[in-house]
Amino acid sequence: MQITKENLTIIIVTIKSQNIIDDCLQSIDPEVKKIIVENSSDQEFIDTLKKKYKNIECYLTGKNLGMGAGNNFGIRKAKTKFVMILNPDTILRSDTLNKIYEISKDLKFAILSPLSDNKDFPNYKKDIHSENNKADLIEVSQIDGYSMILNKDEFDNNFFDEKIFMYLENDDLCLRTRNNFKKIYVYSKSLISHLGAKAVDEKYRNELEFSRNWHWNWSKFYFRKKHYGFTRAFFFGFLTFFKSIIKSVYFFLIKNKFKSRLYYCRASGFMNALFNKSSWFRPRLD
Question: Considering only CA atoms, which of 11, 12, 59, 15 is closest in space to residue 282?
Fold first, then answer.
């Protein structure tokens, strides 16, 4: 079935994204359905969005669920066959979706995405050999999570792993998709801009850095353990853990509190994953 504006819903998970989301929403065809999942209790934020934009549904989760669980929340609310996972710090071109509509005709896929317009930072990895008869359609092994269109019928309601709060949830989804012999494509004639790490207000920069370092190490261990086994996860993570402990102590002694806590968060993320603890760390965004 071809993607159209009638059978597509765009899902955007937000938290403290007031400074960035308008550019994203204004770049989307107003006729396309949109679901905003706000990972907080900020009623004022979603009331503002509902007044400014049409074809938009907004939901408050009441707490920070993370990207995977937040996207699953939106997917469950969507009534269309296709959903587009989009970060609030992305901007579509005027023909981005029209190009996707065109290429999707008679195309069997599980995941499809526009191409990043920044050639220095491609939004995919391609470690497979594939031949297709459509120019500019690239079969890939992995797509970055800031933009991906999912054919819901291909997933049996098994979308993002909600144990992962952030980082590698898209890698996990793509790997499971490939393991099930389903197709992932990027279409190079459809372009998208990604500002990168701008989805949350910059004033929370320090808290976000602590969170990113904690979850990056938690998610790496969990992902490797899930797909490749405990031994490999431990082997590839322990050296980083050991170095992080040393650096945290060093920066504590020279009274650099920011870097001391940053490296502590790296070590803590690894340790919590090692002992099978949940990805509980949350940045303070009050």
Answer: 15
